[in-house]
Amino acid sequence: SCSMAGEEDFFLEEKRFRQFCEEFVKHSQQIGDGWEWRTSKDFGDGYLSKTHFQVRNRHIPPDLKEKNNDNTEEMLFAHVEEPSDDSQAAGVCSTEEVVRYEYHVLYSSSYQVPVLYFRACFLDGRPLTLDEIWGSVHASYQARLQEGPWDTITQQEHPILGQPFFVLHPCRTNEFISAVLRGSQEHHRNINYITLWLSTVGPVVGLNLPLSYAKLAPEQSTAAAV
Amino acid sequence: VDVLLKAGGDTPIMRTKKWAVERTRTIQGLVDFIKKFLKLMASEQLFIYVNQSFAPSPDQEVGTLYECFGSDGKLVLHYCKTQAWG
């Protein structure tokens, strides 16, 4: 059940969410990772946003590659006759395509956790389906998709932008974050919740955080000075 | 690379905690190993954390992590499992 509370739950208050995001963005700026904080005029809320472009290799169907070169004309002719809705066949020559990925981190006041929204589209504006996004995710991450601590990925309207995004459902976020933090009572005050959470869920949707975020914990000690 | 594995949350503790791991072993490889060792169900997922605050990418190499986060000649990693799914 999603509403089962553990012995100690580490719910994220909105104020803390903003603080963690601020720290996170600062580090991102230092290493040029592209995250920024966006605010909306109409809503008081703000959110983290990152856009990045990725070149994907598209597979050339093996039978086209292996066809006898003497039959060039025949090959081209055969290609033209392929159904136009077969996205794999479009453009014999191009083996690469550019995809624009957008990731947003919003705060969910009902679950009191951050939520990951994402979408991807080709440069001509055509959005990628979820299957197409998974196609470029590493195989081991795909396993996580089925087995990870999230309920489902659904398509929802972005609360601030009003456009369709895929969302990693936040139902089990608190459960696994609490499990990780439970063992580190003194330490956890210095842990950036966003870094911890995003490094765990990000790879499943093709989002990787560089290792340098792991050093994000603030330097100051909480021990009293003598 | 010497790795010390610590259990987080409700995760079972491994009887052997210290392991010598090849530098090129990836996090995903380590995850698969621990899952087998603990006899976890296929539907249970295991995550590894460094500094108890960051989950390295599955293809991150242990050698690199040791260089960045190792101390006293070893790398301490925490592992955490999630409940069985379905």
TrEMBL record, chain A:
The protein's name: Ubiquitin-like-conjugating enzyme ATG10
Record GO biological process: autophagosome assembly; autophagy of mitochondrion; protein modification by small protein conjugation; protein transport
Location in or out of the cell: Cytoplasm
Database matches in Pfam families: Autophagy_act_C
Molecular function as annotated in GO: Atg12 conjugating enzyme activity
Keywords: Autophagy, Cytoplasm, Protein transport, Transferase, Transport, Ubl conjugation pathway
Function: E2-like enzyme involved in autophagy. Acts as an E2-like enzyme that catalyzes the conjugation of ATG12 to ATG5. ATG12 conjugation to ATG5 is required for autophagy. Likely serves as an ATG5-recognition molecule. Not involved in ATG12 conjugation to ATG3. Plays a role in adenovirus-mediated cell lysis.
Organism name: Loxia leucoptera (White-winged crossbill)
Gene Ontology cellular component list: cytosol
Chief location category: cytoplasm
InterPro entries cross-referenced by the UniProt entry: Atg3/Atg10
Superkingdom in the source lineage: Eukaryota
Family in the record: Belongs to the ATG10 family.
From TrEMBL, chain B:
Family matches, as CDD domains: Ubl_ATG12
GO molecular function, one term: Atg8-family ligase activity
Signal peptide: none
Listed name of the protein: Ubiquitin-like protein ATG12
Membrane topology annotation: Peripheral membrane protein
Sorted UniProt keywords: Acetylation, Autophagy, Cytoplasm, Isopeptide bond, Membrane, Ubl conjugation pathway
Main location: cytoplasm
Xref: InterPro entries: Atg12 (IPR007242), Ubiquitin-like_domsf (IPR029071)
Keyword Membrane: yes
Gene Ontology biological process: autophagosome assembly; autophagosome maturation; autophagy of mitochondrion; glycophagy; piecemeal microautophagy of the nucleus
